[in-house]
Amino acid sequence: MVIPVAIIRRKKIIKGFIDCGAVSPETAKTPEEAGVLRAFGGMFSRLESEGILKSCGNNRYYINVDRV
Length: 68
What we know:
Elements: H1 5-19, H2 41-49, E1 53-57, E2 60-63
Antiparallel strand pairs: 1-2
C-alpha cells in the first residue's frame, strides 16, 4: 500500500499540534514546539484554507478539531 507524501505530511502536522495540546487560540504553539517542519509550508497553507490549521500570529498555530 502506497500513501502519498501529501497525506503523510497532513497527518504529521495535525498530529503534532494536537499531541502538544495546540487546540485553541490560548494553547497555540509554533511549528517548532509542535515538532513540525515548517518546510511543509504548502501543506500549512492548504490546512489554513480548509480551516483546520488556524494562525494566531507570531508564528503560533492551533488545530480546529471540529474541522479535522
